[in-house]
């Protein structure tokens, strides 16, 4: 019984020792790969800057799309529905219609504009006041301005409410001006698709850049790799520092991209503030959130690891020691 316990303890210690040794070996190779980057500062800095700038563009475009969506969500509502009554509708019938519509659970408020009020406002605003005096009769109909409740102010619900109101007796036609919003949403969707396409192309370029950089590093150490294989080093052991180098490129490139996006966001916020002040708007450009920064950093690391993996799998296997 004691012998079994001793054997189990030894196995556990051996497993713990192997695990610790493996972790230390990975840590040593990770730090060593960072040192290799430090020994070639010009090449490393140029590669990191290229990666950072390549990732800055899709991240900035994402920032633009996110703020555009925020604006469209604020506008994605019907402020009011305009109902034009039939010209033959008497004032009393129009008032009864107002009372009926006010009972709708979808309606928050109804404003009645008589035909005389509409003509008076048109005279003042159009500048044709004297010419309109020669009209035999008022060509303008009475109008109802219907404000939906918050729940029914969304585009689809407002359209359904418009169809319902148009069925009322005395209503000639209704108007819900959402065409501009539909066009804006279509443009935003197009921009989002373009951003996705550009992001995919730039991510592929990042993978190619890192892959080519790691390939050059492998070729520069071709003789050392051959000697390592000659003394029994496995491909995985030889590949590990180059894989860590790709990870470091990703980490540093993602950090540069985060800084560049923050600088661009700050610059655009100042320019946008001058524009919104002219329209007395309180819109503030939102930067990347913490989760989005983590996604950007993770994407950069993943692309760096992918590029280095593709390169080492192709080139290190091709290097074999030759007997002289």
UniProtKB/TrEMBL annotation:
Localisation per UniProt entry: Cell inner membrane
Record-linked Pfam families: FtsX (PF02687), FtsX_ECD (PF18075)
InterPro entries: ABC3_permease_C, FtsX, FtsX_ECD, FtsX_proteobact-type
Domain of life, source organism: Bacteria
Membrane-traversing stretches: 42-65, 194-218, 247-272, 293-312
Coiled-coil region(s): none
Record keyword Cell membrane present: yes
Entry keywords, A to Z: Cell cycle, Cell division, Cell inner membrane, Cell membrane, Membrane, Transmembrane, Transmembrane helix
Gene Ontology CC annotations of this record: cell division site; plasma membrane
Database matches in PANTHER family: CELL DIVISION PROTEIN FTSX
Family assignment from sequence similarity: Belongs to the ABC-4 integral membrane protein family. FtsX subfamily.
Main function: Part of the ABC transporter FtsEX involved in cellular division.
Protein's UniProt name: Cell division protein FtsX
Species of provenance: Cognaticolwellia beringensis
């Amino acid at each position: 019984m004691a012998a079994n316990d001793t054997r189990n303890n030894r196995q556990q210690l051996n497993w713990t020792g192997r695990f610790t040794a493996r972790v230390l070996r990975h840590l040593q190779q990770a730090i060593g790969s960072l040192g290799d980057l430090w020994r070639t500062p010009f090449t490393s800095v140029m590669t990191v800057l290229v990666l950072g700038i390549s990732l800055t563009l899709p991240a900035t475009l994402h920032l633009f799309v996110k703020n555009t969506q925020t604006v469209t969500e604020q506008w994605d509502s019907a402020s009011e529905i305009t109902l034009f009554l039939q010209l033959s509708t008497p004032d009393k019938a129009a008032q009864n219609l107002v009372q009926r519509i006010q009972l709708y659970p979808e309606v928050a408020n109804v404003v009645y504009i008589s035909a005389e009020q509409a003509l008076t406002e048109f005279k003042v605003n159009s500048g044709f006041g004297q010419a309109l005096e020669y009209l035999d009769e008022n060509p303008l109909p009475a109008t109802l301005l219907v404000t939906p409740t918050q729940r029914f102010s969304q585009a689809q619900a407002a359209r359904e409410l418009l169809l319902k109101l148009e069925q009322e007796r005395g209503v000639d036609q209704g108007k819900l001006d959402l065409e501009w919003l539909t066009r804006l949403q279509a443009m935003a969707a197009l921009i989002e698709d373009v951003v996705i396409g550009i992001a995919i192309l730039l991510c592929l370029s990042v993978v190619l850049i890192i892959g080519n950089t790691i390939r050059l590093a492998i070729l520069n150490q071709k003789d050392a790799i051959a000697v390592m294989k000659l003394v029994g080093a496995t491909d995985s052991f030889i590949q590990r520092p180059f894989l860590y180098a790709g990870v470091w490129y990703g980490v540093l490139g993602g950090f540069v991209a985060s800084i560049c996006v923050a600088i661009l966001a700050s610059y655009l916020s100042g320019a946008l503030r001058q524009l919104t002040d002219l329209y007395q708007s309180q819109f503030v450009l939102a930067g990347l959130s913490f989760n989005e920064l983590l996604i950007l950093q993770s994407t950069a690391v993943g692309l760096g690891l992918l590029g280095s993996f593709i390169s080492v799998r192709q080139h290190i296997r091709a290097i074999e020691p030759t007997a002289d």
